[in-house]
Amino acid sequence: MAMSPSADVPAREPRDVRPSRGAPAAPGGAPAAPGAAARLVKFYHDVLSEMKRVSWPDRKTLTDSTVRIIIFVLFLGALIALMDLGLQFLLVRVPALLLGR
């Protein structure tokens, strides 16, 4: 059953909640948000300042880590290949041998 609006409550007009483009300032004297170009320049400067704080590994550490990762990936690939061969034997060849096909 649908309820009818109460006569005691005045109807509110819909309002636009999106900020208008080029609004000079928010109520209360707060400055307007910076434009896209200013935000992009600030982001670029922030990235540069963060990159200066990064501690980069030396060449020996980088080479050692790279070799370890390559060995691990090769080991994982070999493990997956062995599992594939084992499952192929169990799920394809054993039933074919048992059924005589």
Q: What is the topology, as strand order, of the major beta sheet?
A: 1-2
Distance between the termini: 69 Å
Rg result:
33 Å
Mean of pLDDT: 82
User: Which percent range describes the beta-strand content?
Assistant: under 5%
**Helix coverage percent:** 55-70%
* SS field, number of helical segments: 2
The H-and-E topology, N to C, reads as EEHH
Determine the structural class based on helices, strands and strand pairing. mainly alpha
The biggest beta sheet, please?
A: 2 strands, antiparallel
Low-confidence stretches: none
How are the secondary structure elements laid out?
Layout: E1 25-26, E2 30-31, H1 36-53, H2 59-99
Antiparallel strand pairs: 1-2
